C-alpha cells in the first residue's frame, strides 16, 4: 500500500507540477488593418467581419458588435494579444468613400486614429491527441462571484476537507435515498480534478479508490488555491465540433465573447450550472433548460448570502446573453496549415506544436482564401464541361502572394479545399513548361549588353546532338517556323525554337546557374531543353521563382508566418522578409514589359480581354504531352501561380491558355488588385519597334509595338517598311 501511494504521488508531481496541460498551438490569419486612405470596399469589410463572427446590431454596446449604415461603420473591436503587444477593446468609427477608408476615429473620445486592427481569425490549431482546447487563466483573473457560485454548487466545504469530504458523501447518499430518482454526487472539487486530469470516467470501485487516495495526496502536496486554479483550467464545458471546450477561460470566450474577469454574476451562474451536464444545459441548444438551471444557481447564491435580494432579482431578469458564434473547425485551410507546420518543424518539435500553446501569426488573407476556393471549384467544373473532359478528373493548386513582400495570402492544394490529403501546392512536382522562358530572357540580358527585347533570334529548325548520340529537335506549338523574330515576339508568342536557340547562345550552364540563383532550391540540370521548361517544380517553388520578377530582381522566399509567441504572448520568434538581389532593376524592368505583351497581345491575351483595365505581366506554360497547364502572373499588388492537371499524370489535353489561365482570370476578375505600373525610369527609354525586323517602326509598318530599352541601346536604324505600290488604272 505504501508503495502504491508513493507511485501515485510521483505521478501527480511529475504531471501537475511541470506541465499541467497540453495546450494546442493556435494559428491565426493576418489581421485586417484599418487606416485612413487604405483601399477598402464595404463588401470586403463585411466579409471579414462575418468570418470573425462580429455581430451586426442596431446599437453596438460590447466588443464584437458593429453597426453599418451604407458607407459608415462603427466597430467595437475586440481586445487581443498580438505578437507585438496587447490591444485593448477599441470602439472605432469611419467612412468608406471612393473605395478608401476616411475619418477613422475613436468613437468614444472623437480622437483621430492613425491605425486600428481587427483581431485575427483563428484558422486552425495543432491539437494534442485528445483534441482538448483551453485558455489558461490565473486565480486572480476569475471574479469572486464565479468562485462563490462554484463552491456553492459543487463543494461548499472545499476549504475545510482534505480532498475527500465524508460530509458531502453522506449528504449525497441521503439525497439519493430520499429523492425521486434524481441522483446527486458527493465528489469534491479536488476529486473532480483528479478524475478529469489523471484518470478516466469509468465507473468502478477501483477508479474511485485511486481517485480518493490521489485527492488526499494532491491536498497534501499543494495549496487549496493551486487546486482551485487547476480546476478552473481543467473543467469541461462541452464540444465545439471536434474539439473539447475546457476551462472557464475558453468557455467565457466561446459563450459570451469576453474575458473571464468581465463575466456578470448571471453568466458565472450559467457556466457553473452547466458543469452538471454540459450537453443538457447547453445555452445554444437548450435555452429553457439552461435558463432554469442558471436561476437555480442564482437562488443558491442568494440563499448563501452571496447575492443580495436586489442583486438576485436583477441578475435573474437578465437574458442568457450568449453570442452567436460559428463552430470552429479544426482546420479550415488544410493546405495552408500543412505549409505552416512544415515551416515550423525546423524550430519546434511536434510535441511543442501540440502541447505548448504556441500562438502562430500568419500571412493568410481569410477573405481572399475563401474567394479563391470558390472560384477554383466553379472554374474547373466549367472547363471540364466546355471541353468534354471527364467530370472531377482535373486537379489544381493555386498560390497567391503579395508581389512585393512574398507573403502568402491564399493557398489551395486541392479542388475540394476542405480536404486534408495530398497537398499539390507544396508536394506536386511537375514540369513547368514555358513559364520558365522569362528567366531565359533575363539570363541573356544579365549576361551581355548585346541582348535587348528587339534582338533578332532565329526561329528556324534546330537540331542538337545529345549525349546518347540522338538528335533533339524542338518544335513550336503551332508546328510552324517563323524565321528571324525579335526577342519580344518570341517571348510574346512562346516560340520554342527561338528560346532553345537563345539558351544555346547564352549557354545552358549559364541559364541553369541563373535559375538556381533566382530561387530554385536544389540543382537545376543544364539540359538543352531547360529553356522550354524541362524542370520539375511545385507551385510554391515556382511562386518563389517568380517573386524575383515581381519584386524587381530581388529573391524573396514566399512567407507564411509572421511571428510566434508563447501562450502568454511572449515573443519567441519573428520572421522578417529577407531579400537578395539576383538581377538588375533595369533588366527586370525589360522582362516585365515583355511579359505585359504576353498578356496584352500574346498567349495570355484572354486575361487582358476579360480584365482590360488592369495591367498584368504573366506567362503561360504547357508541357509537350498536354499533361500540365500553368500560368504565373502578377499585378502591381499580387502574384499568383496556377497549376491544373491530373493526379494520375495522364494526358489531360489542356494548355496553359485553356486551363490555368482561365482559373487565374476568374480569380482576378473579382479580386481587387492594383494595376501593374512599370513607371518612369531615368535610364529607360521607349521606342516604337517593327515586330518583323526589330528596327524602329515607321508609319508603313504593319505591326509595331512600343518597347523599352536601357537608354542608349535602342536601335537607330529604321525598318524597311514601305508603302505598297498602287496599280495603275489599266493594271500596268
Structure report:
This protein has a five-stranded mixed sheet. Strands 3-4-5-8-9 form a five-stranded mixed sheet, with helices on one face. Strands 17-16-30-29-28 form a five-stranded antiparallel sheet, with helices on both faces. Helix content is 36%, strand content 19%. It has 23 helices and 32 strands. A hairpin with a 5-residue loop joins strand 28 and strand 29. The chain is of the alpha+beta class and 732 residues long. The longest helix is centred in the middle third of the chain and has 22 residues.
- Estimated helix fraction: 25-40%
Strand % is 15-25%
Distance between the termini: 125 Å
- The spatial strand order of the largest sheet comes to 11-1-15-25-26
Biggest β-sheet description: 5 strands, mixed
Low-pLDDT runs: 174-178, 728-732
Averaged pLDDT? 89
In total, the number of strands is 32
Radius of gyration, in angstroms, nearest whole number: 33 Å
Number of helices: 23
Family: In the C-terminal section; belongs to the transpeptidase family.
Domain Bifunctional transglycosylase second: 34-118
Keywords: Antibiotic resistance, Carboxypeptidase, Cell membrane, Cell shape, Cell wall biogenesis/degradation, Glycosyltransferase, Hydrolase, Membrane, Multifunctional enzyme, Peptidoglycan synthesis, Protease, Transferase
Protein name: Penicillin-binding protein 1B
Amino acid at each position: 500500500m505504501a508503495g502504491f501511494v508513493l507511485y501515485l504521488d510521483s505521478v501527480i508531481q511529475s504531471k501537475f507540477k511541470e506541465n499541467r496541460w497540453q495546450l494546442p498551438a493556435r494559428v491565426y490569419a493576418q489581421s485586417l488593418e484599418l487606416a485612413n486612405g487604405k483601399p477598402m470596399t464595404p463588401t470586403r469589410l463585411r466579409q471579414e467581419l462575418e468570418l470573425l463572427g462580429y455581430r451586426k446590431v442596431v446599437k453596438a454596446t460590447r466588443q464584437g458588435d458593429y453597426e453599418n449604415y451604407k458607407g459608415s461603420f462603427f466597430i467595437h473591436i475586440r481586445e487581443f494579444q498580438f505578437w507585438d503587444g496587447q490591444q485593448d477593446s477599441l470602439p472605432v468609427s469611419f467612412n468608406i468613400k471612393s473605395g478608401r477608408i476616411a475619418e477613422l476615429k475613436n468613437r468614444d473620445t472623437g480622437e483621430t486614429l492613425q491605425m486600428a486592427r481587427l483581431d485575427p481569425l483563428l484558422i486552425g490549431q495543432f491539437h494534442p491527441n485528445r483534441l482538448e482546447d483551453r485558455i489558461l487563466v490565473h486565480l486572480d483573473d476569475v471574479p469572486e462571484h464565479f468562485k462563490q457560485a462554484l463552491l456553492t454548487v459543487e463543494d461548499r466545504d472545499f476549504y475545510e476537507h482534505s480532498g475527500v469530504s465524508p460530509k458531502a458523501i453522506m449528504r449525497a447518499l441521503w439525497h439519493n435515498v430520499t429523492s425521486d430518482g434524481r441522483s446527486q454526487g458527493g465528489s469534491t472539487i479536488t476529486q473532480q480534478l483528479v478524475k478529469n486530469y489523471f484518470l478516466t470516467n469509468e465507473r468502478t470501485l477501483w477508479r474511485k479508490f485511486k481517485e480518493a487516495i490521489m485527492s488526499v495526496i494532491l491536498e497534501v502536496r499543494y495549496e487549496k488555491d493551486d487546486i482551485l486554479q487547476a480546476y478552473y483550467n481543467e473543467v469541461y464545458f462541452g464540444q465545439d465540433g471536434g474539439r473539447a471546450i475546457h476551462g472557464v477561460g475558453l468557455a467565457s470566450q466561446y459563450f459570451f465573447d469576453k474575458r473571464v474577469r468581465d463575466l456578470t454574476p448571471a453568466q458565472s451562474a450559467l457556466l457553473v450550472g452547466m458543469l452538471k451536464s454540459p450537453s443538457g444545459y447547453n445555452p445554444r441548444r437548450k435555452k429553457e433548460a439552461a435558463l432554469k438551471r442558471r436561476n437555480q444557481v442564482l437562488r443558491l447564491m442568494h440563499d448563501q448570502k452571496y447575492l443580495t435580494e436586489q442583486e438576485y432579482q436583477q441578475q435573474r431578469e437578465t437574458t442568457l446573453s450568449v453570442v452567436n458564434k460559428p463552430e470552429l473547425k479544426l482546420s479550415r485551410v488544410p493546405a495552408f496549415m500543412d505549409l505552416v507546420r512544415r515551416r515550423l518543424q525546423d524550430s519546434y518539435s511536434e510535441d511543442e506544436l501540440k502541447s505548448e500553446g504556441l500562438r502562430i501569426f500568419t500571412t493568410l488573407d481569410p477573405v481572399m482564401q475563401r474567394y479563391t476556393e470558390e472560384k477554383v471549384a466553379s472554374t474547373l467544373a466549367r472547363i471540364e464541361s466546355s471541353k468534354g473532359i471527364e467530370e472531377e478528373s482535373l486537379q489544381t493548386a493555386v498560390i497567391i502572394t503579395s508581389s512585393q513582400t512574398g507573403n502568402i495570402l491564399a493557398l489551395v492544394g486541392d479542388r475540394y479545399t476542405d480536404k486534408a490529403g495530398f497537398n499539390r501546392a507544396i508536394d506536386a512536382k511537375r514540369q513547368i513548361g514555358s513559364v520558365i522562358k522569362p528567366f531565359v530572357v533575363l539570363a541573356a540580358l544579365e549576361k551581355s549588353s548585346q541582348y535587348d527585347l528587339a534582338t533578332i533570334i532565329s526561329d528556324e529548325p534546330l537540331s542538337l546532338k545529345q549525349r546518347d548520340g540522338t538528335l533533339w529537335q524542338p518544335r513550336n506549338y503551332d508546328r510552324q517556323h517563323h524565321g528571324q523574330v525579335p526577342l519580344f515576339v518570341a517571348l510574346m508568342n512562346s516560340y520554342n525554337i527561338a528560346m532553345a536557340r537563345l539558351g544555346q547562345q547564352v549557354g545552358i550552364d549559364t541559364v541553369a546557374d541563373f535559375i538556381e540563383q533566382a530561387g530554385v532550391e536544389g540543382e537545376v540540370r543544364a539540359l538543352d531543353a531547360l529553356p522550354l521548361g524541362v524542370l520539375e517544380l511545385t507551385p510554391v517553388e515556382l511562386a518563389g521563382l517568380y517573386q524575383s520578377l515581381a519584386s524587381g530582381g530581388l529573391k524573396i522566399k514566399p512567407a507564411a508566418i509572421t511571428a510566434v509567441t508563447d501562450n502568454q504572448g511572449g515573443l519567441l520568434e519573428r520572421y522578417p522578409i529577407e531579400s537578395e538581389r539576383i538581377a538588375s532593376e533595369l533588366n527586370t524592368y525589360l522582362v516585365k514589359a515583355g511579359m505585359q505583351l504576353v498578356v496584352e497581345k500574346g498567349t495570355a491575351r484572354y486575361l487582358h480581354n476579360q480584365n482590360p483595365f488592369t495591367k498584368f505581366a504573366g506567362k503561360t506554360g504547357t508541357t509537350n504531352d498536354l499533361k500540365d497547364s500553368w500560368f504565373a502572373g502578377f499585378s502591381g499588388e499580387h502574384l499568383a501561380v496556377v497549376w491544373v492537371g491530373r493526379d494520375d499524370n495522364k494526358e489531360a489535353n489542356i494548355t496553359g491558355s485553356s486551363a490555368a489561365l482561365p482559373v487565374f482570370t476568374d480569380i482576378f476578375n473579382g479580386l481587387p488588385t492594383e494595376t501593374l505600373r512599370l513607371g518612369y525610369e531615368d535610364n529607360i527609354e521607349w521606342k516604337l519597334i517593327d515586330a518583323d525586323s526589330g528596327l524602329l517602326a515607321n508609319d508603313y509598318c504593319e505591326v509595331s509595338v512600343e518597347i523599352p530599352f536601357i537608354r542608349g541601346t535602342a536601335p537607330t536604324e529604321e525598318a524597311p517598311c514601305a508603302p505598297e505600290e498602287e496599280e495603275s488604272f489599266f493594271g500596268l
